[in-house]
Amino acid sequence: MPGQIKIFHSETVFLYKIDKEFCKVYFEKNQNYLTLEIESTEDLDHVEEDSIQNKFPKIILSLDDFEINYSSTQEMLNETLVIEEKESLTYSKLSIESDDFKILKNKVLLTLENQDLSLSWKGKCEDFTQITNELLNFEVFCEISEQIDFNFDEYEEFEKIKEKKNKIIPNQSFE
Fold first, then answer.
1. Which of 51, 62, 117, 122 is the most interior residue, by most CB within 10 Å?
2. In the 8-state DSSP scheme, what is residue 89?
3. Burial, 70: exposed, middle or buried (Cβ in 10 Å; 0-12, 13-18, 19+)?
């Protein structure tokens, strides 16, 4: 399934092809977290020359360090995650060039289709065109090719053990 991002603007529907996707579930300090990143290509061959989308050739949607009650992507299958943003704490954003825009009312669903991990991500984002003050609906559908389930606490322990084993032993003279 080729991945795509759709953003529904009052003027048009922005359609982006996905270049890179990343999903990571990790455990750190007794809590599990989810990180997602979806990056579009800059390919706008499908866009009309006078389309407003030409001003925004590449976008990145990201969800960072969202606390979850699952220890792996497999446990999350077919479970819809609702990401509630708080004023003091935001997990997700839409990045265009050097500007970041809020994403709200996120719903993320991971499924397994033909042995491939698939992502459905829906939500609302700020109008990055600045034509309106309204939130724009968006949808992301793609297969996740890069997926990591990682335990930072175990990694830190592993690094300590590895460090001990690699301690330099003073040179001994063998005559």
1. 117
2. B
3. middle
CA pair distance 55, 2, nearest whole angstrom:
23
What DSSP string runs through 15-41? EEEEEEEEEEEEEETTEEEEEEEEEE-
Checking DSSP bridges between strand 116-125 and strand 136-143, what pairing results, if any?
Answer: antiparallel
**DSSP assignment of 35-77:** EEEEEE-S--TTS-TT-GGGG----EEEEEEEEES-SSHHHHB
- 119 close to 4: Cβ distance less than 8 angstroms: no
How far out from the chain centre does Cα 29 lie? 21
Distance, in Å, from the CA atom of 128 to the CA atom of 95, rounded to the nearest integer, reads 9
List Cα–Cα distances, 28 to 32, 80, 88, 136, in angstroms. Answer: 6, 22, 21, 34
The per-residue pLDDT for 152 is 53
With beta carbons less than 8 A apart as the criterion, state whether 20 and 3 touch.
Answer: no
Please, which pLDDT band fits residue 149 given cuts at 50, 70 and 90? low
pLDDT tens, position by position, 76-115: 889 999 998 776 678 899 999 989 999 989 999 999 888 7
